[in-house]
Specification:
This protein has about 120 residues and is of the alpha+beta class. It has helices at about 5-15, 60-65, 90-105, 110; strands at about 20-25, 30-35, 35-45, 50-55, 70, 80-85. The mean pLDDT is about 90.
Length: about 120
């Protein structure tokens, strides 16, 4: 398994472990949802490289500055969604924090409170 694939699998485990998070497969793609709302799209590009799309309110400029990051298609980029191709040298912690941020943007406040004020370890 490649380093990006390992990182991707670890990110999936992390996302599905957040309060009330679950996996769904709309459009044949794996997504993490909370209360029927998507907070992470986990996908592969045409070359089979793992990636994810997250909704970022605060970190969008930083995320878009990363190699392999682009505004998400289908008009979602205008709403703050960023698609990230996972590279071997991308820090897991940074990607995990973006999942936390996306969860905090999408999840009901009653669930966000369960995370506390800092991103989860």
């Amino acid at each position: 398994m490649t380093a990006p694939a390992r990182i991707w699998n670890d990110l999936r485990r992390y996302a599905f472990g957040l309060p009330e998070a679950y996996e769904d497969h709309p459009w044949g793609e794996s997504v993490a949802k909370v209360r029927k709302k998507v907070f992470v799209f986990f996908g592969m590009n045409d070359s089979g490289e793992p990636g994810m799309s997250v909704k970022l309110r605060d970190s969008q400029p930083l995320a878009l500055a990363q190699p392999g990051a682009t505004p998400t298609g289908y008009g979602l980029g205008k709403a703050g969604w960023v698609s990230i191709r996972i590279a071997p040298d991308m820090p897991f912690e940074m990607l995990r924090e973006w999942i936390d941020e996306s969860y905090r943007v999408v999840a009901p406040k009653t669930l966000v409170v369960k995370l506390g004020s800092e991103p989860s370890p």
